[in-house]
Design brief:
The protein is mostly helical and about 220 residues long. The protein contains 10 helices and no strands. The protein has helices at about 1-25, 40-55, 60-70, 75-90, 90-105, 110-125, 125-140, 145-160, 160-180, 195-210. Helix 4 (about 75-90) packs antiparallel against helix 5 and helix 7 (about 125-140) runs antiparallel to helix 8. The longest helix has 23 residues, at about 1-25.
């Protein structure tokens, strides 16, 4: 205890001595700390975040999306992208929060609803709520898209609705094949369906069959 008191007194004596030395050196006032303002706009922070995300630098991407939201808390793209970062890092609760905030800004948005669905699928929480949201999106204008129908099928599968899941997968695959898998194969002005989307649909249909194998045929009499 005594040593502690001695150190405190020594420190206090040193403060006026430091001030005296500064003044003697021709410095009439203490230096000011300058805080620089962030020169980037919210949109520029998002662009920088996307660049980091493409390079796999998720923590840096998260920082930029959070900076964008500090500048504009209603920036939809920053909310969705931040949710995607949390989803990639398997922080499903945080991802869900960001997607719900995004949907508060744009109710019924297909992308935010789709990504919210995957947070529910991966975490196993909120599947029924996500399913209801996804059903609404798919039944709305522009909702009959292979990626959205595929997500709907996975949700139905996790909700133990195998028949309805197969319907969604079958329609997703049909639309994907109709659109074609390369720009040259696109028909009727539809956007081409990427090969990875078709592979995912096929993989999910296979998972459905493994989870819910069809009943064995009845033996012949």
């Amino acid at each position: 205890m005594k040593m502690e008191k001695v150190r405190t007194r020594s420190w206090r004596r040193g403060v006026p001595l430091l001030l005296a030395l500064l003044l003697a050196g021709g410095c009439s006032r203490l230096p000011k700390i300058i805080v620089l303002e962030d020169p980037l706009t919210a949109a520029e922070h998002v662009e920088l975040g996307v660049a980091y995300e493409r390079n796999g630098e998720l923590d840096l991407a998260r920082r930029e999306y959070e900076r964008a939201l500090r500048k504009d808390g209603k920036f939809f793209r920053a909310r969705v992208n931040l949710g995607n970062i949390f989803l990639a890092k398997k922080e499903f609760g945080k991802a869900r929060e960001e997607y719900l905030l995004a949907l508060g800004l744009r109710p019924g948005d297909a992308e935010a609803t789709n990504n919210l669905s995957w947070a529910a699928i991966f975490s196993g929480k909120g599947v029924e709520e996500a399913l209801a949201r996804m059903e609404s999106v798919v039944s709305g204008p522009g909702g009959r898209r292979p990626t959205l129908l595929d997500t709907l099928g996975v949700l139905r599968m996790h909700a133990s609705r195998p028949g309805e899941a197969e319907e969604a997968f079958a329609l997703a695959e049909e639309l994907c094949r109709q659109a074609g898998v390369t720009p040259r194969e696109g028909v009727n002005g539809d956007a081409p369906c990427p090969e990875e989307v078709l592979r995912e649909i096929e993989d999910h249909r296979g998972e459905l069959r493994r989870r819910f194998p069809p009943p064995s045929p009845a033996p012949a009499n």
